[in-house]
Amino acid sequence: MSGVTRAEYCVVACAEAWRGSGEILASPMGLIPSVGARLARRTFAPDLLLTDGEAMIVGSDGTVEGWLPYRRHLELVTGGRRHVMMGASQIDRHGNQNISCIGDWARPARQLLGVRGAPVNTLNNPTSYWIPRHSRRVFVAEVDMVCGVGYDRAAGARHHRIPRVVSDLGVFDFATPGRTMRLASVHPGVTVEQVREATAFDLVIDGEVPYTREPTAAELRLIREVIDPGNTRDREVPV
């Protein structure tokens, strides 16, 4: 198989967020993160737990494997045994995320989703982010409201961790002395300068930035023929 699309690189980058996680609950929010979590479960992370979003543990094909009562779900959420991949309307260099409003909280220019479960997610279990449209409106110098908690505000939070941020341009992490965002890889066809221009703060860039890894032939077959045969991924990240 050939002709790997940008969306498929994004799927693989999202899947990598769960590599080595063991038996934890994966909670992907969004189309490409969901395809990525199912890919991880079928390949290098077979112990991942997936849920139907209601009360069941399901296999990567949707087959019911067990019951997940709400009290058990809360135990996983608050005990560091869940890894969420959320979206972000804004995110800053420290990993603070906003999904609530644009502008001043008292008189916002735009009302969004609200805080929802972002504080609990970020303080109590690992949280990664998926951003399908990388721009200076999303990667901002300072978020208008903190919903998901970044590294500069998480002192003492035992299970706080932001493994990675994936956008349609590249992959980012916080593997820096000051725990600020670093450009870990760019997707093939994207330049470092493109990422810089689309980001409203200075990213940490360590030398030559590698490309996001290629999906294997087996992974491509799973993505295209088993997990997402309808190619819905290209609706989120067009070719």
Automatic annotation (TrEMBL):
Q: Where are the transmembrane segments?
A: none
- GO molecular function per UniProt: CoA-transferase activity
**Which Pfam families does its entry note?**
CoA_trans
InterPro entries hit by this protein: CoA_trans_fam_I, NagB/RpiA_transferase-like
Q: Which domain of life is it from?
A: Bacteria
| Name of the protein this chain belongs to | CoA-transferase
Species: Streptomyces phaeofaciens
Q: Could you say which protein family the record assigns here?
A: Belongs to the 3-oxoacid CoA-transferase subunit B family.
| PANTHER family found in the cross-reference section | ACETATE COA-TRANSFERASE YDIF, CHOLESTEROL RING-CLEAVING HYDROLASE IPDB SUBUNIT
